[in-house]
């Protein structure tokens, strides 16, 4: 798709859906780019995605919006969309389940990533969080957990 021909609000609709786009759209993306540096479609898409990610993260810090699995899934979809490699991310939550921070801790290849529980614990302690949400993406689009995913989940629970 040629994103240079898509309006800003339509681009937001493609990324986060119609309802969310209407709620968050406040103006054009054009001020992000200088007049002599007209963005190509990929730059425009990446800028819009990053703005939405930052807006959602800020909203999550202010409010307790991670109250259901759908909200978490929507945030993680935006975080992982377009990745061509497996990635393991952690959402750090305070005692009211508000987002403190999210970060990609481990990056892998097309079909695997190495995850080290010790490093996760170190980062969680550094963030001074009360709870965590672990997630990772499968670039293939297959959402079924592998045996390795199940073993990792078991290890992290312990």
Protein model, in words:
- With 158 residues, the protein is α+β, with helices and mostly antiparallel strands.
- The chain has two domains: 1-62; 64-158, Cytidine Deaminase, domain 2 (3-Layer(aba) Sandwich), CATH 3.40.140.10.
- The protein contains six helices and three strands, in the order H-H-H-H-E-E-H-E-H.
- It has a three-stranded antiparallel β-sheet with strand order 2-1-3.
- Strand 1 (87-93) and strand 2 form a beta hairpin.
- The longest helix has 22 residues, at 41-62.
- The mean pLDDT is 76.
How do you describe this structure in short?
With 158 residues, the chain is α+β, with helices and mostly antiparallel strands.
Layout of strands and helices, then pairs:
Elements: H1 8-16, H2 18-24, H3 41-62, H4 69-80, E1 87-93, E2 99-107, H5 117-127, E3 131-136, H6 147-157
Antiparallel strand pairs: 1-2, 1-3
Helix pairs in contact: 1-2, 1-3
Number of strands: 3
Helix content: 40-55%
Helix/strand structural class: alpha+beta
Q: Which stretches of 5+ consecutive residues score pLDDT under 50?
A: none
Kindly report the CATH topology of the largest domain: Cytidine Deaminase, domain 2
Name the average pLDDT: 76
What proportion strand? 5-15%
Which tags fit this structure?
158 residues; alpha+beta; Cytidine Deaminase, domain 2; 2 domains; three-stranded antiparallel sheet; 6 helices; 46% helix; globular
């Amino acid at each position: 798709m040629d994103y240079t021909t898509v309006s800003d609000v339509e681009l937001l609709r493609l990324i986060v859906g119609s309802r969310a786009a209407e709620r968050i759209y406040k103006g054009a993306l054009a001020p992000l780019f200088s007049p002599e540096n007209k963005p190509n479609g990929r730059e425009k898409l990446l800028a819009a995605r990053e703005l939405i990610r930052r807006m959602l993260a800020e909203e999550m810090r202010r409010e307790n919006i991670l109250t259901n699995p759908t909200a978490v899934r929507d945030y993680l979809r935006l975080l992982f969309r377009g990745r061509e490699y497996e990635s393991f991310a952690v959402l750090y939550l305070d005692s009211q389940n508000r987002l403190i921070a999210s970060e990609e801790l481990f990056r892998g290849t097309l079909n695997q990533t190495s995850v080290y529980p010790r490093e996760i614990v170190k980062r969680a302690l550094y963030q001074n969080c009360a709870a965590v949400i672990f997630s990772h993406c499968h670039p293939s689009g297959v959402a079924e957990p592998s045996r390795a995913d199940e073993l990792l989940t078991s290890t992290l629970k312990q």
